[in-house]
Amino acid sequence: MEYMKTLNPSATDMEMRSLMPIGGGSHAAMETFLKFLSSWLDTNRDFELVQAYICLFLKISGEEIADTPSLVALLQELFSKQQQSWTRIEGHFNRTMCLINYLKSAVL
Q1: Distances from the Cα of 99 to the Cαs of 18, 66, 71, 94, 102, in angstroms?
Q2: What are the residue ranges of helices labelled H in the chain?
Q3: 12-16, 93-97, 103-107: least confident range
Q4: Phi/psi at 68 (5° precision)
Q5: What is the pLDDT of residues 44-90, one digit of tens each?
């Protein structure tokens, strides 16, 4: 992830395109990238960055993924983890909003 963070947008695009079989990669490379994104969601860091990578990866290789059952299965697992992460973040937002509302109405 540290390497990915150093890349500019065009280099990131190029790296993701190189994962596809047509770009010199393979389905195994695509599977590894999806597993990487899934494991990064488990760290509870860089949520927005992972979302951007998922979006770009799907935009570039969506058709290839749809035609490969193993990639579809990994994408479904990634989607499940993404939902769990969003639920966790949403809980943090809700607690923060409750605290802000309480502090706004509290007489100090």
Answers
A1: 46, 44, 42, 9, 5
A2: 2-6, 9-17, 27-42, 47-66, 69-105
A3: 103-107
A4: -125, 105
A5: 888 899 999 999 999 999 999 999 999 999 999 999 999 999 999 99
- Residue 23 tokens read as 């770009």
The residue type at 91: G
Per the structure block, which two tokens stand in for 66?
């749809």
The model's pTM: 0.79
Residues 6+ apart with CB under 8 A from 16: 33, 53, 56, 57, 60, 61
Residue type, 76: Q
